[in-house]
Amino acid sequence: MNSYKKKRALLIKNIYPVVILFCVLVLLGIGYAQVSDVNLNITGEAVAKGEEGIFITGVTYDSSNIANPSDSTITSTYLTTMQSTINLGNDLNSTITYKVTIRNNTDEPAIYNDAIYDPDLGYDNNDIEYIVNGITHGDILNPNENVEFTITFKYKDSLSQVSNSILNSYINFKFDESSYVARIGSTYYQTLSAAVNAVPTTNVQTKVELLKDTSEKIVVAANKNILFDFKNNVLSSNGANNVIKNAGTITITNGTIRSTTPSNGAVNNDPSGVIYMSGGRIEMTANGGKQALYNDKGIVNISGTSYLYSVGNIRAAVQNVAGGTMSITGGTIIATNFSGLVNDGTMTIGTKDSDVNVNSLIIQGTNFGIDSSTSYNFYDGKIKGKNSPVNDVSKIVDIETGSNIVNSTEAIEGDTYHTLFLTTSSVHTVSFNPNGGTILEPTRNIVNGDVIGTLPIPTYQNHSFDGWFTSIDGGSEISASTIINDDITFYAHWSSTIVARVNGTDYNSVQEAFNNVPSNGEETTVTILKNVEECVTVNVGKNIDLDLQSYTFKNYGDAAVIENKGTIKIKNGNFTSNADTSLINNNNGGRLIITGGRLIATGTRQVIYNNAGGIVEISGDAYLSSTTTGVPTANGVNLNRATVQNLKNGTISITGGTIIGINQSAISNEGVMTIGIKDEIISTTSPIIRGNTYGIESTKTLKVYDGKIMGITGAISGTVNEIETNSQLVDGTEVINNNTYFTKHLENN
Q1: Backbone φ/ψ region at 71: left (φ over 0), alpha (ψ -120 to 50), beta
Q2: Do 269 and 298 meet the contact criterion of CB atoms below 8 Å apart?
Q3: For the chain, N or C: smaller number of CB within 10 Å?
């Protein structure tokens, strides 16, 4: 089903990039759009990959009244969100209008909801309002169509005096998913059945599109001719019925038809029915079920990339009864508990064209690939069966001119299958290109139609072998069972095993690189060269400047990503852990310096666990977040595991960055903790500390000189022992994502 993924990117001025990224993540629910992928990098930029989705394609100046358009600008757009800086000047009658174009690049209609903004984060002048003309709530934006409308910015009518003429806004033109299931042309239907019923009985082909997954019984009457465009959606069974019962003519090219009940098969083709299938899937997924396709004296043509599959043990994946006619020129037919195809009618496998194509089609079953009581023609493809490829080879009455039937075996998921295919007995040269490595067997001769057999293994220093492929870059991977029917070259693919570099020397693990850093306290840069999944230890005497670049360092197993006993500086990259221990464990005597990067823990513990005697310094645009809900004890009580945990006699200094506790407190302090710098200058924008319960829970020494501390239960639990000279802690509240937070920050007396 193609559904609209809810995404929004807010690029907020004058806030650290890490804070920007957090806002993007927590506001995903505002705004609907679909993209193939979304990347958020460390600079706070949001980049949509692919061409799917609902998005703004253009914003242009339209008109103004009194306002000078050169003083205003649309600074950026992302999906359906528009960032604007508007200057209306000092005249209350001033207005400025922009023309907006939005495209629906999905396969589903979308319904316009409203233009919305977040008053706390995305719209900073409530004296200015906007009016949208040309689109109203409930309007439908069809697939692959554009809508054009205007948005006018003006002062509120109730305003009597201009105090602030500048508006910085993030406005999202919100679209919702429709409830329509199918359409014919520009007419939409609530069910696929309704669309099928609307097709005329004139034998003129009508295209019916499926817009989303649905569970229905579809009956196609005689004299109806339907091209089904299921796209990537699934039509599944509704009760003990066939999914499709066809008495007309249907064409299937994509999507999935799936029966999940054993009483009937997926598709039943009546005597007057004609089925053309060139792609898509027909599946019977119920144990004890019947066939995927039952041809009851009708006509069936299977070709292309069609895939028919059944786990049933009552009938074959495809059943062609007496009086039925079936042509199979492509696709795959597989039965996991019965024969692949049972034939009692008229059948042709492949195309008689003076060419044997072993790979054009596969018919596979656990009993037989084909179990036939009548004669049939066999020109292309491969037939596989656990017992035998066919029940009676004498039923094959015609094969490709100049070819011979070959019987062989092949291993499939640990089982041996007997195979049958045609060959013209020519010999082909297979070449193995090591692609930078070395190989002992560069070529091999293979009889046409034979499998390639055991593959050679090349070598390449500091690389791991990924397999043989049909192209030097990309392509399809081959195996020992790959059929050879032409001269061909296969290419080795490699993955570099080098992950880190120290002073020009490369290492295959980060721990190996750390081990080769001097133990005399000399600061040494360790550069990470790829994404890492490893748990490492910084030993006593090591002083490491870790340059992660833009890569991700992830834990392996259930251990901390970093166990620090020396000194380590983190300045960039991404650190993630889903372990039931801390992301970083800072031991007695360890010094942990974080000036940037993103550190996110999704397990049951904290990002930083600072043991007694440990020193932690957090500054810059560092971002720390934990989803911990605590650690359950034997009596069922959850021990608090804040994002940052400072134990007794531990020391932590936080002068910048953002620390978030998504489910518990952001910081738990039992030692000495300093927030900000005592320099007679107060910053309320850095650092930011926000928890789901408290921003900070402290039972020991807590000094606060800068920043903002927030929590839903309370901003601070415990005593603040020292604040900036000539200042006071001020209480407040702030609403974020419909949650009210208690806040504390300093203000000068």
Answers
A1: alpha
A2: yes
A3: C
What pLDDT digit, counting tens, does each position of 647-691 carry? 999 999 999 999 999 999 999 999 999 999 999 999 999 999 999
Same domain, 212 and 158: no
Query: Do the beta carbons of residue 84 and residue 75 sit within 8 Å?
Result: yes
Counting every residue written for the chain, the total comes to 749
Domain-ending residue, one of 125, 160, 177: 177
Give yes or no for a contact between 341 and 384, defined as CB atoms under 8 angstroms apart.
no
Output the domain CATH number for residue 432: 2.60.40.4270
Per-residue pLDDT tens for 586-600?
999 999 999 999 999
Q: Are 77 and 101 in contact (CB under 8 A)?
A: no
Question: In degrees to the nearest 10, what's the CA dihedral of 270, 274, 275, 278?
Answer: 170
Which residues lie below 8 Å from residue 127, measured CB to CB, with a gap of 6+?
A: 155, 156, 159, 162, 163, 164
SS3 695: strand
Residues 576 and 673 in one domain: yes
Strands 427-433 and 443-447: antiparallel
Instruction: Tell me the pairing of strands 688-691 and 567-570.
Output: unpaired
Its domain, for residue 676, covers 500-748
> What residues have CB less than 8 Å from 197, skipping those under 6 apart?
none
- Characterise 381 by phi-psi region: left (phi > 0), alpha (psi -120 to 50), beta (else): left
Q: How many other C-beta atoms can be found within 10 angstroms of the C-beta atom of residue 477?
A: 12
